[in-house]
Structure prediction request, 253 residues.
Amino acid sequence: MFLKCAADHSIVTVAILQEVNNVARKKPNKVEVVDYMSMDAISAIVEQTDMSSPLGLRDRTMLILLYDSAARVSELVGIKLKDLRFGKKPTIILHGKNNKIRTAPLSDSTVQYLKKYLLEYHSEAPLSSSVPLFYSRIHGEQYPLSDRRVRYLLRDYTDKARVACPEVPEDVHPNQFRHSRAMHLYQNGMDLTLVSEWLGHANLETTQIYAQANTEHKRLAIAIATPENSALFSGLLSSAMTIRLPSRRTPQR
Prediction:
């Protein structure tokens, strides 16, 4: 910045500025932060939905599917009935970024919620239909639910869940369900390559953030579980106080 300023005042320093600009710059170490929630926090949010009402059924099914499939919110609202596959191995087709398509497996519990939801909201539509899975009705027409609407509903349920579960963070966004699913899969032993495929990452390096975050999480857990003043280290600390290095003796001539 100094040389840029100097170059504006004297043409002599322009050559020096050019030489400095040619020096290779080291990229700073970028630390990725993964916003993920505990299973207790996610359950607390989902449980805020009212299953006695059709809207509550819709919202619970939507949140459960958001977590189980690790879908982005744009992928969630883009699901059509024809993307559902109910067979021996239930799956769902997700349409991701740059028109990339991936298939995500579904748990049996999620399938049960989906079937109940379909009976309520799509009782007359065939599964081969292109109508949106989650929709809002405007002037009698079905339109895909908007990203904004999903975020609004999630914020409302989150505020209520935080009263019952302090682990629920502030400002929960839909992508935290995706991050949480990926982290839970990795913590339970799924290989990072499979997690990468599950999330639809084009590069495995993108998925490395979960391994790094998990390592940091373990380090913090160890630090909390074993503080420096723990009795475990009392003997070591007292011994360290009595250790004396041998003094150097001047060699005799």
